[in-house]
Design brief:
By secondary structure, the protein is an alpha+beta fold. The protein is built from two helices and eight strands; from the N terminus they run αββββαββββ. The protein starts with a helix and ends in a 7-residue tail after the last strand.
Amino acid sequence: MWLRIVLSVLLWCLMVPACVPVVVETGRPYPGGYEYDYQDEYEYFHIPPGHLPPPGECRIWYPDLPPGQQPPPGDCQDLRWRVPPGAWLIDTPRESQEYFRVSVYDPQTPRLVIGIRLYDVDTGRLIREHRPRSYRH
């Protein structure tokens, strides 16, 4: 009986910290001024060389397709209206080619961005993420 209680308490103590979100500040500057970094299941996102859109352009990205099957890059103003639910819009800002930005679209609602992630170009590591309450293009 006591062993069962001790094991239950121990298991509970191990599970609770795993449920608490971790917020990490990297201290890396970004012109957009996002405040927090979130560590989640997308901590790394590597795009092979040649698959990032050129600076100032965007690319619709389907997370379930390999890089070679993604649509070609194009004009950001045009593509942001054509991103289907559940897809991502990737762009490399003109002001810095050290990172790329991924706008994550809601799986059910057209044109609703649910997160904007910044990744380091060289390592693919998540720099920071902004989760807007509602953000429509």
